[in-house]
Amino acid sequence: MESTRLHVLEALADGPTSGPAIAERLEISRAAVWKHIEALREEGVEISSTGTGYVLESIPEYGAAALSLDLPGTYAVHYADSMPSTNDEARRLATTGAPETIVITDEQPTGRGRLDRDWVGPSGGIYLSVLVRPDHPPMDVPILTIVAGVAVAEAIETVDLDPAIKWPNDVLLDERKVAGILTEMQGEADRVDWVIVGIGINANVERAALPAGATTLSSQRGESVNRRDLIHALVDRFDHYRGAPIDALAAWRDRAATLGRRVRVETPTETIVGEAVAIEHPGTLVVETDQGRHHVHAGDCEHLRPVD
Ligand code: BT5
């Protein structure tokens, strides 16, 4: 959201306040204040005009205003009602030198999963990409997938659901996928230029609109969730765990659906079958097989039935 408009919204949130008072506070003209107020109203922000000035009545559950106001951290917000892929839009912003930004949409007709798979994105979900410019080396970037998984899980816990995390990037409710994460990066051998952590959460979406094996927050709760609150919780947790990777791994272990399970992991070069026994920094899965321990950095993981 454009920064002056956000400042007008913040002034309204501190209100009631008058047009001239906002103009003075922001050092802009009264006409400019009026223009921003009209634009906010068009976005669905309810602002009434009373004898004492403007009163902020309500903000919508989703959209640029809803997400920008009181967003934790220092991220810019880039919102549109529909986008082909928030990861692609974040990449475009990254290459133009944008600062750390959250790109977000309500509907994503051509979202991407890993390995060129599709991510189904009907209206009502949460589709967001966090563009970050970390100062750690490229080999540590997978920790951001762990951080995101934990942030999503803890955000979902705020609506009284009990998620589990499947290595490396799925968040599950009752063994069904409710969220997925796609992390992409650009950098050199020793330096990260940017990382984009794409997060899709099936929030207020019909289960029938999704692939088999998927679930949604609204179907699990029997009522819709407030996406604004959920995203603010998610960003707060993401920001916290980014700076505390050891804590992120511990929080991941607490919710791990994969540890202690028999798994089949497909890596780019081999298939490993064994018991998932540990996760290590920066997100490496340790699998115990008949041939010994394997440290798996990336791959697709399937949970298998235990052998009797
Ligand atoms: C993922 O891939 O789980 C990563 C998904 C990342 C989506 C976000 S949304 C915002 C950002 N912008 C993007 O364009 N992408 C990111 P993967 O592990 O490869 O899982 C993909 C598989 O999950 C598909 O092949 C389907 O089987 C299944 N799937 C597709 N859409 C789903 C959905 N909405 N819910 C649950 N499962 C789904």
Can you walk through the features of this model?
The chain is of the alpha+beta class and about 300 residues long. It has nine helices and 16 strands. The protein has helices spanning about 5-15, 20-25, 30-40, 65-70, 85-95, 140-155, 215-220, 225-240, 245-255, and strands at about 45-50, 55-60, 75-80, 100-105, 110, 120, 125-130, 165, 170-175, 175-190, 190-200, 260-265, 270-280, 285-290, 290-295, 300-305. Strands 3-4-7-11-10-9-8 form a seven-stranded mixed β-sheet, sandwiched between helices. Helix 1 (about 5-15) crosses helix 3 (about 30-40), helix 2 (about 20-25) packs across helix 3 and helix 6 crosses helix 8 (about 225-240). The protein is elongated. The model has no long low-confidence stretch (mean pLDDT about 95). The protein binds biotinyl-5-AMP.
Topology at a glance:
Blueprint: H1 3-13, H2 19-26, H3 30-42, E1 46-50, E2 53-58, H4 64-68, E3 76-82, H5 86-95, E4 101-107, E5 111-112, E6 118-119, E7 126-132, H6 142-157, E8 164-166, E9 170-173, E10 176-188, E11 191-201, H7 217-221, H8 227-242, H9 245-254, E12 262-266, E13 271-280, E14 284-289, E15 292-296, E16 300-304
Parallel strand pairs: 3-4
Antiparallel strand pairs: 1-2, 4-7, 5-6, 7-11, 8-9, 9-10, 10-11, 12-13, 12-16, 13-14, 14-15
Helix pairs in contact: 1-3, 2-3, 6-8, 6-9
Bound molecules: biotinyl-5-AMP.
Largest sheet: 7 strands, mixed
Report the β-strand fraction as a percent range. Answer: 25-35%
Mean pLDDT: 95
Low-confidence stretches: none
Topology pattern, helix = H, strand = E: HHHEEHEHEEEEHEEEEHHHEEEEE
Ligand types:
biotinyl-5-AMP
Total count of helical runs of at least 4 residues: 9
Protein structure class: alpha+beta
Q: Approximately how much helix is present in the residues?
A: 25-40%
Q: What's the quaternary structure here?
A: single chain
Distance between the termini: 57 Å
Radius of gyration: 21 Å
C-alpha geometry? elongated
Can you list the strand order of the major beta sheet? 3-4-7-11-10-9-8
Q: What is the count of β-strands?
A: 16
